[in-house]
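Dear colleague,

Following up on yesterday's call, I've attached the two folding results inline so they're easy to grep. Please treat them as preliminary; we haven't cross-checked anything against experimental data yet. The first protein's sequence and structure tokens come first.
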Amino acid sequence: MSKYNLLWKHIKKNGGESSKLSFDEIKNIAGIAIDHSFVNYKKELLEYGYEVKKISLKDKTVLFQKIN
């Protein structure tokens, strides 16, 4: 079980075609703060039909995109 499973399930349920979440929103959903290991875990999201499209450190957001 991944530490980001709650986040992946949330995105699958609520993501639509794309979804942008702030780092704070991700922390509230997943119960943990996003950290450098996120880039290793993001490939798990493919199993849920989504991908991480962009991580903005400046804006502190992550853009998720549905895989067509």
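Below is the second protein, in the same order (sequence, then structure):
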Amino acid sequence: MIEIAYNRADAARVAAHLRACDGSFVPSLSTRVELEAYAAKIAQFAERTEAWSGAQLAGLVAAYANDPERRTAFITSVSVLPAWHGQGLASKLLLTCIARVRGLGYEGIELEVDVRNTAA
């Protein structure tokens, strides 16, 4: 059973989740950022749409909604634990995140995907 929540995970929980998902990023996230610092930034500044399976953070979409003049948010991270791949969780989180950001008054949302990430 999955529960969708907002902004519940702290930096340590986000970091643990990103480490567990690291191999699913293309290229791996740890080759591009220092995971603990990135997790701290997400925990402090991002709107987080989270999927919880009990006490486990199964999925996460982090979006920066901090440009009210431009009224466009930016999705910085989409991640789902490997055990939950192929079940539509990322799509559900993205749609929920879009609705949440729209509810905050943003009209657009951007996402950048590496061309090698065919799944995305």
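For the second protein, one point worth flagging: The mean pLDDT is 93.

Best wishes,
A.L.
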